[in-house]
Amino acid sequence: NSSVEADPEDWVRIISNDGYTFLLRRKVAKMSGTIRASLDETGGFAEAETKTYRSQERGIVVQKMIEYMSFKAHYSTVGPQEEIPVNDIAERLPLEILLELLLAAEYQDSMHVSLILYPVVLMNGFKV
Amino acid sequence: MPTEHDSLGCNNNRRIQSLVQLCQRVAGNHIESISSVGELPFTLVQPILERCSAEQLLRIEDASPVYLWRSLCRRTYSTIMERLEDGTDAVPDSWRTHFYILREAEARRLEEVGSRIRSQRLEADERKKKREVKFTERLPPPKRQRTGWNMPTQPRTLFQKTRSEASKLQKNMYNTRMIPPMLKGKDYRPTSSIASAPLLAQTSYSNRVTVKTITRRPSSATAGSSEPDTLPSKTLNHSPLKPTTSPSSTWKTETRSLFSSSNGALTIPRKDTPKNTQISSSEIVPSPSKSFPVAKKDPMASLFVPKHRAYSQRAG
Q1: What mean pLDDT is reported for chain A?
Q2: Of B3, B23, B34, the CB nearest to A105
Q3: Which end of chain A, N or C, is less packed with Cβ atoms under 10 Å?
Q4: Do B30 and A31 count as a contact with CB atoms less than 8 A apart?
């Protein structure tokens, strides 16, 4: 049971707050600590059963986050010598949603490395 | 951090910038497009705002906490701010106004330095100009004097010219001897034989003004009042005065150029000392005596000395 669900090639689902559904492989979804934790059946979250994560962000923001996660998942596996083309993803971030994305990214805790230093941010609940 | 599953991924995850960092970086590049940071937590936007200039900061300032201006001050004027933090200066109440104060002070200092540099550069330029080759209308001083004294002289003023001419006239008037005119100093001794002026040797081969045998009997002692007509103006040297000294033997003195026509007075060929051209000639007085001590006392000494350079030798 758990082995099946732990399959990284599995498809999981993220639903935005405005009703958009995104399908992505588990290994990509795991790039986000929050999502990973919620999808991880050992954590006991309900999402684990349904393999669905309900995001508080709107569709367009979720889409960009997934794009980032894909980028990250792909380059996680390259050799240490290879250069990671950060610009590829950077230029795909439109200014119109940039600040919103910034906020959302931080909320997705493990998308922000140093979140730990800002516990205030977590508790703040500025997350819509 | 994700992933116990692939160790490789672990390493790379650290290399890959987080989305937060990416967003901050992109936003920093497009600060102009940010109208407000709204309610974003300061810690999040701080890296972005750090890349702002003061003007941009003003625009965004709405909900920013106090530290914003303080850190901007620190960043922009770090050296001054260090003093502040050491407690040597009073802490400003408003970091924002302090920032403006600092900015003005900085601008003033830059201005001062700028103008100092500018003036230094101008000075250096001027100095350089002085030394560089210039176009000028003034004639260069004549080449080395034939006597080798090498004393360049100022162009003689009109007054000087007139005076020397006049004195020459006087001298010649009272001091004419039959022998080739020689170098005479300023002193003139009235001689009885005024009338025997005649002998000024003819210098046919000179291009400069010179000698003409003037057979006149100037009755008046006043020099310069002579009748121009008798003056053998033909022999007069009319050639334009060449400023350059013609090279010739050192002992030779050239006649002084020209004066004659100008005042219509008698021009006497004068054996000048080394200075030859009028332009270059300095005071006649002292020099002649030096090189030709002989001249004054021993008229015979110059007997065999050609007064002027041989015609063929003339530079023309």
Answers
A1: 77
A2: B23
A3: N
A4: no
